[in-house]
Structure formats: structure tokens, C-alpha cells
Write a structure and sequence with these properties.
alpha+beta; 5-stranded antiparallel sheet; 3-stranded antiparallel sheet; 6 helices; 36% helix
């Protein structure tokens, strides 16, 4: 009985469209990419962005961080270099390493490296914790075959261009905060 009630209720909610006006409009406008051929094309574009030093590519922690209790971050996979934690994640050094030492490798080898190397956080007690692999920490937007895509949490998403522009428009309307800092002795 409970299952039948649940299924009927869920089906009824699916048929409604009130979710679109309650902050869940994105459900109709963002879908994960399941086609492996499309993913491969998108990964090729990601590698091209790395090689071209595309500034729209970012690497960032993909989970909640206790910012008051960290000494910094570092990325593994740069041979025997000393991994120094820095509060500002220095992913450019990592990407430069890839550009330099993987310039003659095929795209699949670079993607494998991104999936093997790790993003590590060092807490206030100098304890290290792996947050994720680098690929899962990449944030990257791309247009491919006139469709908008986003890589986030290691998953490629297709984003409705109209929805994307609507969100960008909303963001552009946000007024910039103006802070004045007073010198403290």
C-alpha cells in the first residue's frame, strides 16, 4: 500500500511543472552526457584547452572544505617535485607540467594522467587528505557542434544554451559589492 501511494504521488509530482518556478528549472535544462563518442570529443577539447592555456579551465576542490582549518592544497603527479601546500591552489604549475612533459602524448594519455593524479588538501595539523583526482576537480565549459557543455565533478553535462544565457544574464545584473578597508595598527 505504501509503495502504491508513493508511486502515485511521485507520478503526480512529475506531471506537475511547479518545480520550474521553485528553483528547479535546471532539471529540464542540464543533462549528463552518456554518449561515449561525445565524451571523447569533449575530452579532446579539454586537452586542447590545456595545451592552448585556455583561461576558462579551472581546477578547484569539488567538496566542502573547512577553510578555517586548512594550510593549503597541492596536486600530485609532477615527478619528484616537493609538494608544497598553498592556500591558493597552484594548478597553473600542474598544467604547465602537462604541457611540457606530455606535449607529444595522445589525448587519451593526458586524460588518464588527469584521472590518476590527485588534488590533496593539507589541514591545520598538517594531515593530508585526497579530495579527488584532478579530472574530477576540473571545471571547464565548451561549445561543441553548437551545443554548450560543462565538465564538473568529472561529469560532462549538456546545458541548454537558452538556459545558460538566462543564468549569465541574471549574474551580470548582480551589483558589485564595494568594500572599504580601514588601516588597523
Amino acid at each position: 500500500r505504501k509503495l502504491i501511494f508513493f508511486v502515485r504521488t511521485a507520478f503526480g509530482l512529475i506531471l506537475q511543472s511547479t518545480y520550474r518556478t521553485n528553483g528547479f528549472e535546471w532539471l529540464d535544462n542540464i543533462q549528463d552526457v552518456r554518449d561515449n563518442n561525445v565524451k571523447e570529443k569533449l575530452n579532446d577539447l579539454l586537452v586542447k584547452a590545456i595545451k592552448d592555456s585556455d583561461e576558462s579551465l579551472h581546477i578547484s576542490p569539488n567538496k566542502i572544505i573547512d577553510w578555517e582549518n586548512i594550510n593549503g592544497f597541492y596536486l600530485t603527479g609532477m615527478k619528484k617535485r616537493k609538494n608544497k601546500a598553498n592556500i591558493d591552489l597552484d594548478y597553473e604549475t600542474y598544467l604547465n607540467y602537462i604541457r611540457r612533459y606530455f606535449k607529444d602524448k595522445n589525448n587519451a594519455a593526458i586524460i588518464r594522467k588527469l584521472k590518476k593524479d590527485k588534488l590533496v588538501v593539507v589541514d591545520g595539523s598538517d594531515e593530508e587528505e585526497t579530495i579527488s583526482n584532478v579530472y574530477d576537480s576540473v571545471i571547464f565549459e565548451e561549445v561543441c557542434e553548437n551545443k554548450k557543455y560543462l565538465l564538473c565533478f568529472g561529469i560532462w553535462y549538456e546545458v541548454s544554451k537558452t538556459f545558460y544565457e538566462k543564468i549569465r544574464s541574471r549574474i551580470r545584473k548582480i551589483k558589485k559589492a564595494i568594500f572599504s578597508y580601514h588601516h588597523v595598527r
